[in-house]
Amino acid sequence: MPRAVYVLAIGIFAMVTSEFAVGGLMPEMAGGLGVTISQIGYLITAFAVAMSAGGPLMTIALMRIRPKPALMLLFAIFLVGNVLAAVAPSYPIMVVARVVTGVASQAFFGVAISVAVQLSRPEVRGRALSVVLNGLMLGTLLGLPLSTLIGGQLGWRAAFWAVGALTVVAALATMTGVPRLGRADGGDGDFRQEMTVFRNGGLWLALSTSTLIIGATFAAFSYLSPILTRVTGFSSGAVPLLLVAYGAATVIGNYVVGRLADRHTITVLLAGLILNTVFLAGFALFAHLSVPAVIAMLGVGLVGVTMNPAMAVRVQRVGNPGPLVNTVHASFITLGVIIGSSVGGLAIDAFGLRAPLWLGAGLAVLGIASLLPELSRTRRAQPPTASPAEERVEAASTR
To answer: Could you report how far apart the first and last alpha carbons of the chain are, in Å?
Structure first.
């Protein structure tokens, strides 16, 4: 595996750590900026919306720039956003900072994934994508607790300064460790030419599947803490350890999926969705029992967001490996986060804390349904297999 692929993971780790930092520092930020905790919660929404809507626009603006300079420019924009967050004197300035970092983060995901594809042989692209996306998994596992620890010890602004320092390290590593490349899709950066790929209905179906997979997962993940404490009965002190275990499960699952994604893309996605349906439904049914609840939670970690490498391989096959397709795909993934977390919150208000788990199971079932057209086409495309008797007759006739 090229060393540059691992370097790209450092950049994604920095982006994800910044994304999750607010979630662990809500009380401190609310006190420091003189606003309510719910208003700090809107900063997470602002980041997600900026990623989903602004990331593709940023990628379009960078179309005529080669990948490595584009990555460096995105690092610079992302650094500016984090410095602005660290010194923000007021809540409106913090909102601007989160929008800037969200836009840069999404565009970085798209360009980084395209670079990883270019650097890797076709038969190991899934593995390369899993390495890059390990930055996402490690951000979930380590980024949130580290930023929370730094913010708790040194103040919430120190957490954003730390992300800024990490961004500089990642940028320097990218400058020295990533080679100069041409465009991944072989195009010349013409906007109209880039948009023709989106006329492919199969691409939109693949994007929708990704949204449903991530929506199913985040319907549960967004509310793990209150479910584990108020329904399962764990103490608040045990929840961080359980979340670390969940993060470890995502790292393991991402590794396994990366190994299988190239040769068994649709099979992996189908198996992941079926298992996720079982785990989410099981979690909803047995959330009041500690052992089944933890097993189900870890199962969701193993087969939820870890489908990312297979999702990316599928989207690139029906579309192309270019930055715009990858950034739009990342936007559909972010849309899944928004749907899972927002609709899950509404479901809790209406039906209680188990409701987002049932919502996740329902979204996973819809994800399975979205794979059926491609499964049907694949089955029709396979040549019929002769029976053993027919094979003996054919062999005899050729003697």
So the answer is: 48
